[in-house]
Amino acid sequence: MKAHLNRFDFGLLLLYGLSFLLIWEWLRPVKELTETGNIGVFIVFVFIALLLSLLGVRAFAGFCIKSLYILYSVHSLYYQGSLLNFSWAGSFIKDLKANFGRIWNAQWIELDDVFRTLLFFTLLWIIAYLIQYWLITRKRIFVFFLMTLIFITVLDTFTPYDAYAAIIRTAIAGFLVMGMLTFYRLVEMENIKKSFIFTRKWMVPLAVMIALSSALGYAAPKAEPIWPDPVPFIKSFNSESGEGQAGIKRAGYGTDDSRLGGAFLGDDQVVFTTEIEEQHYWKVETKGIYTGKGWVADDERANTLDFSEGTVPPMLSFYDTVPSKKRTSTVHNVLDYSHIQYPHGVMNIETDDFYLYRLNQVTQKISSLKEFEDSAPDSYTVQYRSPSFQVKELQNSSAEEDENLSESILADYTQLPSNLPPTVKELALEVTEGKESWFDKAQAVEEYFRMNGFVYDQINAAMPGEDEDYVAQFLFETKRGYCDNFSTAMAVMLRTLDIPTRWVKGYTEGEYKETLKSGKMVYEVTNNNAHSWVEVYFPGVGWVPFEPTQGFSDNVTFEYEVESETSEDTEEEQQVAAEAPVKPEVETPVEAAGTTTSGSMASWFQNLKTLLSLNMKNVTISGVLLGGILAIIFLTRKKWLPFYYVTLFKMRQKEEHFPEAYRVLLMQLQRHGLKRGKDQTLREYAKYVDQFFSSRDMGQLTAQYEQFLYRGELKEGTWAEARPHWESLIKKAG
Amino acid sequence: MRSEMNPTIERILQNIEKVMTGKRNVAELSLVALLSGGHVLLEDVPGVGKTMMVRALAKSVSAEFRRIQFTPDLLPSDVTGVSIYNPREMEFQFRAGPIIGNIILADEINRTSPKTQSALLEGMEESSVTVDGVTHELESPFFVMATQNPIEYEGTYPLPEAQLDRFLLKMKMGYPDLDEEIEVLSRAQKVPPIDDLQPVVSLEELRKLKKEIKEVYVDDSIKRYIVDLASMTRVHSSVYLGVSPRGSISLMKASQALAFMSGRDFVIPDDVQYLAPFVFAHRIILKSEARFEGIEAEEVVNRVIARVPVPVQRLVK
To answer: Keywords assigned by UniProt (chain A) (predicted)?
Structure first.
């Protein structure tokens, strides 16, 4: 180990560098998948640990340096004041004590960040040591390499982590390390003096081979998997445990929408029940700023307006010019959210008690207050106007018409992130080609999601990677998702056309329960009914809801004037009208969730069946190929069996395995063409074999086997003594 | 097999080789018979060194050597001995015949009458002779090497099949090859070296060796192999009468001796295979058709060996 101190060993440096890369591959996903920030601190630690080992720093000095680094990192991450102040040491030690107590009580969840960081450092320390042990002492890294590959592929399959580049990096680094270690092992075993020429003779072909094969692997066409994706099937078995996983969400209303995407798990917790005259969506809030990953509210402008019961909420839904009917709905809260769910066009909120309401003017969120504290009324009644939007009006509406509002609304609701891929706009233009008015364009985009390969799927919804756009990923790559995908995509597409659009969150009407004597219908709204949709601003009309999500209908009425009707429009209207009463029941997310999870096994097999019947030719060819490969493997067994046996019997050290090994050898010799006549005694045969290989191994082996067979005794150490002869012979017979 | 001979045996064989040129296998087989308590039938022409071999063997093991030349007029009492009335002692005294010895060369055994033959054979089988109602135990070791001349059938009494069974081995000596014969001539010019031959082992040691041979391990798989060989001779198409269980026992005992001589304490199939033709051939009676076809018993035995698989795995009980 000390030898490398005298002379600079480039190979060793390279080995350490490559192992550092391999460990780094373990740390990369940690950043993406967990909430660990500052991953750099840990990478630097691994680097230091390996560097110390490379430089051959004494164990004690290394220990001190690493400990100091850990203390410094923990301090700078979690404590105030100077490191040398030592005032932080007290609280640090107190923390440690508390955490040890928690470990003792198995309260894993309550371990705090300081302690977790310390534990992680310790783990890395151990890994760095192990790597050094494997590299320098054992000169073997295969297990670690394999584990790294498995780790990365598993992450790639089951998490949003994209390991495309990681696999390539790992494969190259791993093979290089293995190739170099093999060289070092050979040099050591054969006692060759390491010379530059030797090293070059080995390293150049190694490098060329790895470069060629990785380039080939990279460039080669990769077939799509022909097997149905088993991941959702596996996940459905494990659905309960998914809660804590990164990237998987539970259905329900949440306030943070800054990172959308990922699988969505059903949750039938009832949020509220309603008594309604007419089906409608329940709004909670809207969001105006799209970040590329999700939606945020513009907090800087957040000013609130308070209003009391009996007054019209000071927000714009749509203008009075829009014909509407007055309706009333009653809400009975089950969960205590302090926000009010309200229908589009809300006019008044009433409770039995006295509540004050506070409207966030940016998000349109209405909070209920009692005695200046957030509080949810047990039940409340909302009066609202149920609009029938005049298509004629909408089609005539344009930016020029409403000068007061349009500018600020245009500015606020056509915001887009600067790094939005231009393909989104190109698609929007393509979809709306030939459409003049905003309304026609909006409808065209809404329609676009009905077909064109989009699939409603709560489970297999992707989460965009670091450099990906949520909408672009959905539109061009996955085409699979749930309401958030559809609504965000529509909103963003319309915004690329400079049509003011906002993203609305709330609930669907829920699940029908019964009809009361008063004629009102009772609905139950659960977390599964949480939903998102889109509102488009039309000057002179107001905000008009659109529903791009497949299988959902928002029951918004559009009235077409008879004169301006085209035959297409009529159909559309009829479709809307016809769909309205029937569809929502069938295709609520609850149902969707149910079919995807419980029915997934059956459907998986169904998929498999269809796949097989569709690809009968391929299956047959694969079958024949597989058979051929198996036949080749069988016919060439003479070549590979010896290696198998050598490995197999390496693990069989007991004496009683010797006769077995001998018989295996007999069989292998037979396969090699050295036939033993049935009347031929083992001795004669051994003589024959030894003559053939010009060796004496078989004679010695046979003498030992005879001892066992005809004397009935197996002396201690027979197998150990016979093993070299046996291995030499079975390899010769390969 | 010859590489790690038992050292005592090796010395005996080397001793014999001082007088005999070549023919090591004959000496070996003779020793096999001697050590396993059996007897040998040598079928050969005169003058190939049978007597010399037996005398050398006898001298090497310090055994008493006797030679009986069988003639048509030889009486059983000439073999076994007679009781003669001693007038001074007023009683019959037993005069021991030539059979009372350790190593006996029974030359041209087929020339004498069946009665005399059976007197010898009784002695061989029972290790005792009965003269005038008195049984005299023969001293161990008792080893008979009988010879018969295969060419002269005029005036001979061929040994009956039942009698042949009494011999452990039947073998041929054969002529020496060219070099050996030249060597024989060279030796003949000197003083016959047989007189200078020194014993290698005492009789006592020889008896001990015989005891050790009984301890040589015979695995069940080997026993099975021997029995398989024997029973195969019984069903062979050219065979009228196959090998008896006594033949199987003989083969096993001979194999034990050979294994011991080869420095082993267990029998291997090689021992059995090597000895089977010598032990079995004279115990088989071929069908007359086969005899007419010129098939010999040794050939049959070799065919049987070729057909019975050698045990290479432990016997599953």
So the answer is: Hydrolase, Membrane, Protease, Transmembrane, Transmembrane helix
